[in-house]
Amino acid sequence: MESPAPDRLAVAVASGVAVVAGTFLLTGFTPRWVVVALAQTVILLLPDALIASGIQGLGSTAQPLLVAGSGLLAVALFAAIALLATRFGRGADRERAETVFLVAAVQTLAAFLLTITPGAAVLGGALGGATVGLAGARATDPVSGPDRRGLLRSAGVATVAVAAAGAGPLARAVRAATTPADTRGDADPDPLVERLLAVAEERSFELAGAEPLVSESFYVVDKNPADPRVDADEWTLSVTGAVDEAVEVNLDDLRSRTAQHRFETLRCVGDPVNGRKMDTALWTGVPVSSLLAEAGVDDEGCCVMLRAADDYYEEFPLSALEDGLLAWGMNGRPLPRGHGAPVRALIPGHWGEINVKWLTEIEVLTEEATGYWEQKGWHGTGPASTVAKIHHVETREDGAVTVGGHAYAGTRGVSAVEVSTDGGNTWATAEVTERLPGATPADADPESTEAVGGAAVDAWRGWRHEYVADGEHEVVVRAVERDGTVQPSAETDPFPSGASGWVRRSVDP
Ligand SMILES: Nc1nc2c(c(=O)[nH]1)N[C@H]1C(S)=C(S)[C@@H](COP(=O)(O)O)O[C@H]1N2
Ligand SMILES: [Mo]
């Protein structure tokens, strides 16, 4: 009466798939899904040095691989539980019921231990057990006797049923995870934001291969296999530590303060010198200083620890935070989940990593501490280094070549971009875009000229240069800061404190 091993294996795998799909129905692609929880466990177990280069360096490549691997691991784990449990319950009906219950109970327990999410654990376990029950019932049907094909069919049907139920949410999650957030435009446009975005568009050079001044696709880097989903209605931000009085605000409190729009560039410390982890957006929020003033920072306060809903934490000087923005809007839309909804910090001129997403707490410290990435060997809490990138090369039939890209120098600002077409022997001054507008109060009159006045302190500029080619040229580019400092030529890798050096590209028309 005993079904041969391959069939039991098939049932067990189907049961494992049922748990993985069943839990997904309730959690979606969030840290509470068993697969993502397993991926996070794997990250915790891997050596820091590997994580250090893995995520900030590879980021978008490493994470989907990790999630896929964890998916297989999760199926294997729950299949193994089903396999072990079924060994104890072969034969009579009553025993089979006990087997189903045993499978469901152990799978539920395992899913719960992994995710601390009771609802999803119970649903997953129930589906896992039901799959075994369904298949087992067919296999030992007293009329037809042992029926291997029936058993396989049941397992197949159960798998297909669960997969079908999960297909919708899964497709949505995959789409959300793989489509870069379109953060431009707005369903309910604010005329001031529209005007600022229009100005950015007018000032952009149109260069194939390079982003306009407001990025169409903004890079994403964080430590999470799946981003936290923070309920905006329940979200609060507290200011704690060395302050006169701890302050706690919710989103309505924040939004009731005088907001402003700021063009700001972010760059990841893991960005290679000519990489793509540097982008610019128009952010809407309130200056952090308004909240700090309310809490009253102690004189001994030197630094801050920012904490987030994904258990991320970064420490840096209080003085850097004082210029920061608590942003809930990006290019006129609510801040997307992947960029830290409902509220993130924006710290002018500093590496991306202290621009904490899903922000929940600002603790004022009286002595320095170590942040998440610094614990893994990075030094990314300071000012971003100056860079000029070549993302556009276009050759025309008449021999003219146009090269272009962006230059960024944090709050030091870019005053000029210089281009060499002979490997760095001689230099010409490139054409650069007009600076983006400065911080604009959200209640400014969109019609007034002041609304687009000033210049952004922390935004990149576009550059382009045309030359006539007579064969191969080595194009080199470097930025000049506002005080005349020329970007240093010494080359370093991104790890541990950011890439530096001049970008070179040999161009053969
Ligand atoms: N909570 C949280 N905030 C975070 C991170 C993170 O892992 N968790 N990653 C940081 C890093 S390394 C960078 S470069 C920026 C990237 O912001 P973006 O994903 O919006 O481009 O977010 C920072 N903020
Ligand atoms: Mo980063």
Automatic annotation (TrEMBL):
Q: Does the keyword Transmembrane helix apply?
A: yes
Q: What's the short name of a Pfam family annotated to this entry?
A: Mo-co_dimer
Q: Which SUPFAM superfamilies match?
A: E set domains, Oxidoreductase molybdopterin-binding domain
Q: Where is the Moybdenum cofactor oxidoreductase dimerisation domain?
A: 392-490
Top-level lineage group = Archaea
Which chain regions cross the lipid bilayer?
Answer: 6-26, 33-53, 65-85, 97-114
Its protein name is Molybdopterin-dependent oxidoreductase
Give the species: Halobaculum marinum
